[in-house]
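Archive maintenance. Older records in this collection stored only the sequence; we are now back-filling the structure field for every entry so that each record is complete. The fields below show one back-filled record exactly as it appears after the update. Entries are processed alphabetically, and Magnesium and cobalt transport protein CorA is next in the queue.

ARCHIVE ENTRY
Title: Magnesium and cobalt transport protein CorA
Organism field: Gordonia desulfuricans
Length field: 363
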Amino acid sequence: MPQIPNLRPGSRGIAARRDRRPLPHIPVPVARAVVDCAIYIDGVRQPGRIAYADAFRTVRDSGEGFVWLGLHAPDDDQMTGVAEVFGLHELVVEDAVHAHQRPKLEIYDDIQFLVLRTVKYVEHDSIEQASEVVETGEIMIFVGPDFVITVRHGDHTHLSGVRHRLEERPERLREGPTTVMHAISDLVVDSYLAVSEKMEDDILDIERAVFGAQKNWLNIEPVYLLKREVLELRRAVTPLAGPLSRITANGNALVPKEVRRHFRDVADHLATVIEHVVEYDELLSSLLDAAATKVSIQQNGDMRKISAWVAIGAVPTMVAGLYGMNFEYMPGSDDRPGFFIVVVALVLACVGLWAVFRRHHWL
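Back-filled structure field:
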């Protein structure tokens, strides 16, 4: 019979824990994060599929055109590989991998790094049934003399439409990589306008609910929800004014003059959106105060009703309590008519109290 080794208590678990070694990290190829990559010469996309490293090498060797590389949610290893090829700074690589950045513009020598917050309106039948109104994402743009890299986070930040529209207008792409940065910025700011217009309808619904004649209890939760979503939109929109101001500055030699003119139009649209968002924020603050006041009034009305019914019920309760003490001499306790007289008196007293409270709008 084989001998069983003598194991100390817990030694089997220790051995098992020692065997649980962390799995080795398997790097995912950069191609998994690449959405599209192309070379544009004289504004025209060159045919064929090409790896981003080969495309950048071809452009650098020929000195013509630029590379447009599109990435979707790359990880650290993937973004590091791209940074080594294009010569990106390690700080912007970290920002490109980890989302939730505020809109900003950073310049590293001749490379511009622009962060844009994207928004999408979440359709819903009623604001009272909605759990979310605005969905956010991010687009990060690296612009160099002969390349542009777009990194997007989120499911609603597709840029294929922008690429196709620009490819139909070679005269725009002929102006260089900054044209791509303008087209994406214009798309993002236009989405701000669309979202703000749809949110205005929700605010009007809230306004009608707060100030309208409503017999039911006012639900204040949609006001808080919309207030939170407007603040989310404000955090995405307002900080972008600074980066656009730096791009449109006359001293910015990295952006051609004609492209700066187009960016000024984007800045004007952004200013309109900021005005709308600030107005919505102030209006919702007023609606929130009005809704809280209305709820307080409703609560006071309910307390008046409760107090009135308690006062009406106190009269028969007091009389019943007196008769329940079994005193020797109680009015109407020895004859039948006395009982009915007491009951009628109680009914008249309760009806009288009800009429008084009704006249004073307590019931």
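Update note: The longest helix spans residues 257-323. Residues 238 and 274 are 6 Å apart (CA to CA).
Entry marked complete.
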